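Re-run with default settings, no changes from the original entry. Doing this only to confirm the output is reproducible before filing.
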Amino acid sequence: MEKIKKGVEKFNRYRSPEATASIVDIKGDKIEVKVNGPFCRTCGFYDYFDDLRIELESSTGINFEIEDVNEESEDSYIVKFVLKEKGGEKL
């Protein structure tokens, strides 16, 4: 949990105020993160979510993939990450 928080904090340090992340839920091999902001839509909108994935991987040493992105409003999204499988086992 602490490593996931550190990944979110690092993302916020470099991406806020255009995009700010906060942990919504962590269950089993899934993480839900709310991402808010005015977002720069011309420079790769979904890159924000991928950048967050990279920060999570960097802070935890575990590979994630984006499972789903749900729009709550124009400036708010819930991004669901899931641990990637390696060798048939969840990391």
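Residues 2-86 form a domain with the Threonyl-tRNA Synthetase; Chain A, domain 2 fold (CATH 3.30.980.10). The chain has one domain: 2-86.
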